[in-house]
Specification:
With 134 residues, the chain is of the alpha+beta class. The chain is built from four helices and ten strands.
């Protein structure tokens, strides 16, 4: 049985709608990160602040912080007891869900994921090597 020509376009639109935005459906608005400040190969205590365009969060390292998802990088500034503050930037990288969505649903799904700030994710484990600590 073949599909009538006048139904092909609506069915194609429906299929694209269902396939698009996969990361938007699967990923949370926030993300939990594990952050450690390393000094001479060992994790040290530090007071940290993570910041992106969605907000800022303070926490102690080594530890976890929950941040709002964003398509821009996350700046993390940490201060140990024995060193000056150190700032690093964690990049927002494509998630597996977004990569699969682009393969299955095409550009439309990827654009939806980026628009909703759910297509890109920060690395889950961030180790900040502080070479100047004493």
């Amino acid at each position: 049985m073949t599909c009538p020509k006048n139904l092909k376009l609506p069915l194609l639109g429906l299929a694209i709608t269902y396939l698009s935005g996969c990361a938007s459906l699967l990923n949370e608005d926030s993300q939990e990160l594990n952050v450690r400040v390393m000094c001479a190969g060992k994790a040290v205590q530090a007071y940290c602040r993570a910041e992106n365009s969605k907000g800022s969060w303070t926490f102690n390292s080594p530890g976890q912080v929950t941040v709002a998802g964003d398509n821009r990088g996350l700046e993390i500034t940490c201060k140990t007891q024995f060193s000056q503050p150190l700032t690093v930037k964690a990049p927002a990288l494509p998630s597996w869900e977004m990569a699969g969505n682009i393969l299955a649903g095409g550009i439309i799904g990827g654009v939806v994921d980026l628009y909703n700030n759910k297509g890109l994710r920060y690395p889950e484990n961030i180790d900040i090597t502080h070479s100047l600590c004493k």
